[in-house]
Design a protein that fits this description.
With 254 residues, the chain is α/β, with parallel strands linked by helices. The chain has 9 helices and 9 strands.
Amino acid sequence: MNIHILTLFPDMFPAYLNESILKKAQAMGQLTVRLHNIRDYTTDKHHVTDEPPFGGGGGMVLKPEPIFTAVESLVADLQSQQEMEGVPVILMSPQGRPFTQTIAQELAGQERLVLLCGRYEGVDERVREHLVTDEISIGDYVLTGGELAALVIVDAVTRLLPGVLGAEGAAEMDSHATGLLEGPHFTKPADFRGWVVPDVLRSGHAANVARWRREESLRRTWQRRPDMLLTAVLTEEDRWFLGQLAQESVAIGD
């Protein structure tokens, strides 16, 4: 996968991109990230990228010219126009559709992504109307810029690329990937300050371990994100277990 990131602050990215899973993915050839400084696409001597909005108001707005030039330059740099056709140009924006694991999986199926990091009061509306193909938000809050949001997307998408996590299917068991939250995990020592690892996890009985993990995943989702159960794919056994949880909840007065 090739990801192009347009930003006013490219120096924010290398520290995170060059560590851990993202570093591994790049070394494997599964991921290439190219950073593009929007200021490099200005034409005035002061490299102005923002102006006050028409009509007044606080803050500054990113100008359309350098952004359009940057994206159009990416198109020209590819071997042919056909290679760029259909590539998502995504604006990081609190007005965008909420980022989810499903969207991460959708984006992981692309060969190329262009991520545009907004700043200040945002971008000129003509960028939204005539250049970007999508807007994504990582949550209902406002950041000082889109750089952190872009890194979140790169990280979430990279984990889904083949072989990046090592163990086959590892990403498929993450929280949200199955439609549920993950259950608890334990490691050595088996007894830490009197808190003991559940016997089933040390039993060596694979079927019992799998069922315990499924039930704990259901329990945790029931307790913390019951809204997810409305859309999760559940078996009859799952539904029976949730029924037991409901009865327990009524019995203790929750």
